[in-house]
């Protein structure tokens, strides 16, 4: 028999004070609803239905083909939202798990456990509950002497005595499909909010003699939900710690977890070392034996074995084996750094391939270029790639030498083994083994400076003398 998940994501989340739908706010670099969809995938859920309402287009565009979409036209409560999903729940479904799109931290193991508990106990419903220190704003779960769910009371409808109760309803359930459908038909909206509460299904099923049990979550953090930016930051912190712990258990050294940020889609190999201030984002891939940081941000970047990257920002770049990047380097999209390459301080590389064993040690810009193997690019060298309308490409052959303060005016090609003298502006191609020099003739006037200063003083006597502050 099949298992179906219903994810409630109809409310926009006004307390977020954002034009972005609440469930699309990122947690560790990924929209929170995608964390939940990933957990459902890992739990081997057969079908997933996401219930949308306000700003539905945003949610639909984000989840695309990951789930079917049901629409709750009016926000009349959680039971009404689940009703909207019923037509999409297949007839072969045995268990329906209901979850919330703004609670992204539930683990796949917990979802599987809820379904197993329902099946093994032949229960109509399993309620995921949690014992919390501060239950304010949450529904309370009350058990009878046999340990079954007696009732669930929303805080707005609770008495002062009931509000003192600390066993709360997480809003996550596993239902037998036919029991859910029957209970939903009986849910009324005679409560303080005038809404149809899904929590009422538990009482309805109990009164009909069905078995309704609770599973108390072991980890309170797992059921954390987001209603405002403060809660979003808390969920982000929990998720980030989970990610760090997971990678450390896989053999990654994180010198200072408190200052290290790894997003959800990043992949790390064993024996990676992350120094303080490291931020890894997007689909960054880090190979074994690398040292990243301190104070380095990599986004959608690949780092090969043995590389060292420090005080660097890299976006959509590739860094080769045993390369050294930084300090204070900037690798922009399309930068491909070869093996054993040195990219030094205040070097910027964009849409360029740097061949193996090449050195660009400091204060250089390499843009839209193909730099060969074993090339030396001197301090202050620039590929002049933009003419005001179009970008042009520079090609430098293997074993060439580009001196300090050289301007390579693209499009231009420097041949293999060529030598470009410091201070040269190159406008024409240089062939293999070519020697290029483009300096203006130097004029030196001996015994000149004092006389020159005197003439200036005579022309501008008002500027002479000692003035206050000089």
From TrEMBL:
Binding site for UDP-N-acetyl-alpha-D-glucosamine: 8-11, 22, 72, 77-78, 100-102, 139, 154, 169, 227, 332, 350, 365, 376
Binding site for acetyl-CoA: 385-386, 404, 422, 439
Active-site residues, record numbering mapped to chain: 362 (proton acceptor)
Textual note on the cofactor: Binds 1 Mg(2+) ion per subunit.
Reactions performed catalytically: N-acetyl-alpha-D-glucosamine 1-phosphate + UTP + H(+) = UDP-N-acetyl-alpha-D-glucosamine + diphosphate; alpha-D-glucosamine 1-phosphate + acetyl-CoA = N-acetyl-alpha-D-glucosamine 1-phosphate + CoA + H(+)
Family matches, as InterPro entries: Bifunctional_GlmU (IPR005882), GlmU-like (IPR050065), GlmU_C_LbH (IPR038009), Hexapep (IPR001451), NTP_transferase_dom (IPR005835), Nucleotide-diphossugar_trans (IPR029044), Trimer_LpxA-like_sf (IPR011004)
Region (Pyrophosphorylase): 1-229
UniProt protein name: Bifunctional protein GlmU
Native species: Alicyclobacillus mali
């Amino acid at each position: 028999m099949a298992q179906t998940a219903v994810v409630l994501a109809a409310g926009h989340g006004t307390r977020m004070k954002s034009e972005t739908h609440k469930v699309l706010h990122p947690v560790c670099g990924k929209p929170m609803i995608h964390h939940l969809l990933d957990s459902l995938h890992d739990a081997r859920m057969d079908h997933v239905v996401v219930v949308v309402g306000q700003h539905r287009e945003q949610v639909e565009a984000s989840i695309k083909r990951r789930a079917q979409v049901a629409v709750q036209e009016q926000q009349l409560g959680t039971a009404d939202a689940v009703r909207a999903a019923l037509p999409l729940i297949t007839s072969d479904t045995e268990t329906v798990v209901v979850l919330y799109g703004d609670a992204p931290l539930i683990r796949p193991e917990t979802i599987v456990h809820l379904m197993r508990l329902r099946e093994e106990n032949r229960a109509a419903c399993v309620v995921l509950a949690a014992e919390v220190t501060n239950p304010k704003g949450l529904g309370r779960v009350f058990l009878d002497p046999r340990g079954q769910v007696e009732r669930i009371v929303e805080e707005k409808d609770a008495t002062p005595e009931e509000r003192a109760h600390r066993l709360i309803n997480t809003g996550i359930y596993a239902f037998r499909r036919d029991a859910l459908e029957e209970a939903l038909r009986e849910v009324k909206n005679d409560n303080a909010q005038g809404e149809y509460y899904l929590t009422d299904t538990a009482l309805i099923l109990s009164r009909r003699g069905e078995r309704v049990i609770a599973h108390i979550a072991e980890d309170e953090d797992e059921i954390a939900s987001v209603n405002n930016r403060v809660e979003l930051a808390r969920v982000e912190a929990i998720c980030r710690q989970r990610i760090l712990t997971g990678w450390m258990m896989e053999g990654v050294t994180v010198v200072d977890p408190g200052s290290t940020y790894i997003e959800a889609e990043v992949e790390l190999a064993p024996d990676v070392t992350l120094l303080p201030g490291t931020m890894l984002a997007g689909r960054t891939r880090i190979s074994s034996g690398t040292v990243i940081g301190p104070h380095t941000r990599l986004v959608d970047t690949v780092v090969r074995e043995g590389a060292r990257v420090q005080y660097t920002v890299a976006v959509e770049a590739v860094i080769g084996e045993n390369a050294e990047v930084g300090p204070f380097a900037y690798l922009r999209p399309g930068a491909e750094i070869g093996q054993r390459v040195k990219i030094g301080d205040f070097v910027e590389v964009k849409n360029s391939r740097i061949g193996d064993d090449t050195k660009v040690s400091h204060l250089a810009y390499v843009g839209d270029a193909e730099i060969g193997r074993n090339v030396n690019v001197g301090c202050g060298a620039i590929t002049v790639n933009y003419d005001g309308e179009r970008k042009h490409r520079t090609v430098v052959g293997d074993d060439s030498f580009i001196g300090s303060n050289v301007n390579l005016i693209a499009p231009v090609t420097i041949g293999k083994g060529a030598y470009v003298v410091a201070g040269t502006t190159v406008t024409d191609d240089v062939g293999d083994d070519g020697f290029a020099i483009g300096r203006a003739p130097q004029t030196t006037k001996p015994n000149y400076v004092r006389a020159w200063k005197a003439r200036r003083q005579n022309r501008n006597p008002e500027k002479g003398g000692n003035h206050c502050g000089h």
